[in-house]
Amino acid sequence: MSTRRILRLTAGFSLVIAAVTACGDGPAPDAAGGGEVSGEVSVMAVWSGDEHAAFQAVLDGFTRENPGVRVTYTSAGNNLPTVLGTAVEGGDPPEIAVVPQPALVTQFRERGALAPMDFLRAAVEADLPPDIARLGVSGDHLYSFVFKAANKSTLWYNVAAFEDAGVKPPGTWDELVAAAGTLKAAGTPAYAIAGADGWTLTDLFENIYLRQAGPERYDQLAAHEIPWTDPSVVAALRTMTQVLGDSANIAGGTAGALQTDLPTASAKVLTDKPGAAVVIEGDFVPTAVADNPAVRGGEHYSVVPFPSIGGSDPATVVGGGDSVVLFTDTPASRALATYLSTAGAARIWAGRGGFSSPNRQLPADAYPDELARTTATAIANAKTFRFDMSDLAPVAFGGTPGQGEFKLLQDLLANPSDVDGIAKRLEAAAAAAYGG
């Protein structure tokens, strides 16, 4: 599930960015128009707080290159689907929006609300990994492109805990299972599990399933073209219990894990006095503990890609992303959309941290530290990329705390021996949500 639903506070405000007040970070990237375009462009996205400030810096770069364009930014926070949907229904959408849910892009496209961006298709297909570029294509047209991406295929570990136990960061699932046993014997629980946040369990399942069943079956399951009782699903759930199944190797035990949120689980691993050695979650784990004084800038922890399973390609990523869509095609909106597709625009936010770009033209040194470079370049270099499956599902199944996939994977954590029963209940919930 998108972490915004859990980690971001809803906020709503507007900011007009004009050339006379623009002030940005570093040299401006090349933008379409070179100062010759004029007009007004309204932009809506979810970003507030620090993320808004970073996106403002990106937009400032555009206005420096295009002083004749006035850009108005509105943050809709977590209410973006409702706010944007209402604006579209009322016939007054922004010229551009940046949306985190592929289903929302599909909804607006099917209603005929989006303008195709075929003027960008060649650049998008050249600059983004094929699987990510394809996300925005429907039929013969490009309707969106990913501007800001998230890597959910990462394993964060406490360096001292690994060194004290004499284990190395795992590159394969078998190495992870072996390391977990060694860590337990050395006196440190292997895993910190954020079981109170059911969406973290969906991320674990998706990473296992993509590597174990492959991208074709992943796509089929995401569309509910195969049932959750399919043998490939049952096999992935059983693999998942190799992490969830040993209460003694989970910080706080199973009962504690079911009461632990992501910031708490992350803090158990990322400090100098670890309560666990590993937390398996996305590139946003450090952000979850950014306000924790016991966590000091990557001093005690590091990150590796999610382990390969059964020989799966290491360059496999489950992730998310915020995609640019165009509602009104004007010279000014084209110029801004073109600018947002460039590595130059991405560089501005990348240098501030908390940002990963799928653009392969953005050099690794654009990121502020080695951890960010590791997680971000994995997206740009992905040979297989799939969007978070729960974000593709109906909200009743893949996006609501206390029901659907969230609740049933929590039940698997509570009772890891009931794999077959959980699979049947997952299928019943999916059938109801997908409509049969």
UniProtKB/TrEMBL annotation:
Q: Which residues form the signal peptide?
A: 1-24
What would be one Pfam family of this protein? SBP_bac_1
- Tell me which UniProt keywords the record has, alphabetically: Signal, Transport
* InterPro entries with a match to the protein in the record: Bact_solute-bd_prot1 (IPR050490), SBP (IPR006059)
Which family would the database say this protein is a member of?
A: Belongs to the bacterial solute-binding protein 1 family.
Instruction: Report the PANTHER family cross-referenced here.
Output: ARABINOSE-BINDING PROTEIN-RELATED, OSMOPROTECTIVE COMPOUNDS-BINDING PROTEIN GGTB
- The name this protein goes by in its record: Sugar ABC transporter substrate-binding protein
Please tell me the species this chain comes from.
Phytohabitans suffuscus
